[in-house]
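Reopening this one. Same input as before:
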Amino acid sequence: MKKQNWLVFIDTNVFLDFYRLRGDSAMKQMESLERHKEKLILTDQVRMEYLKNRQRVVNDTLKELKKPNDIGLPPILSDYKPAQMIKKHIKNAQKKFSEVREKAANIIANPSGHDLVYKSINRIFDSDSDFNLTRTRKERYEVRRLARKRYLLGYPPRKASDTSIGDALNWEWIIKCAEKCSDQSHILIVSRDGDYGFSDSNQSFLNDWLRREFKERVSRKRRIELTAKLTVALKRLDELVSPEDESEEEKVISSARHSRLDSILSSALLRHNPNMFSNYIFKNVSLRELDALRAYSNLTAHRAAEDSSEPEDE
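Same output, byte for byte:
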């Protein structure tokens, strides 16, 4: 079977999720990306969005750290050696927790000295690859012009609430890189926020218009695909991916989906209008989650009907 070549575009949300990966998965994947940075489609737009949101994401992640609580021992156990050892270990854990918090503060305040993910991502975006759209490239003017045009016409990729041409700029650069690629590489987009298509559990589907546009502007023979999983992209780049890394990534993606669904349900509850997010739901919520939302909607409607049918107190 003939070896396939791929160019990979990684959306900002995937870079930020490196802070949510457990264990050594984040750094292993970052090292893999660095080895293939010449095969990555990069833009200063994604770099800016990463830097703009890095501190917030790091801080949100660190909120999960909980200081070990001391325990009050009854007097009858105060001289018992195992109980004394427990108190000693808790005190040591509290000291270590303070050191961890200090390290966390340094990660936020001085990333170039303390944040390994930050340093690795910056090495990737400092690449002088032909597929890196920096502010020094003359091509940026043409890409921006096309991005403004598609934004004004309402073309995807874009969010309903978009006030910038960022997603449009990234897409136009993807097209440009595909056109000038000498080895006829296929394109893989790694994104988790629904801008480029629809995701359902373990599958992702590129937006219909974007697929049609790629075929018309680039090639009908070459492939363009969408995935929410960076591990899929690493495999396309011939990297070995462990089951542990795949499992950790799945946990991050699943957690993000549940957080989105909780947000939707909370808003619907507050506004008594579960249908108000239909456009957002179509782009971002899987079928299984949509079933849960419908069940919730039916439940709230049933309760509202019961409330309205109750006789008033005389």
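So the earlier flakiness isn't reproducible anymore. For the record, The longest helix spans residues 81-109.
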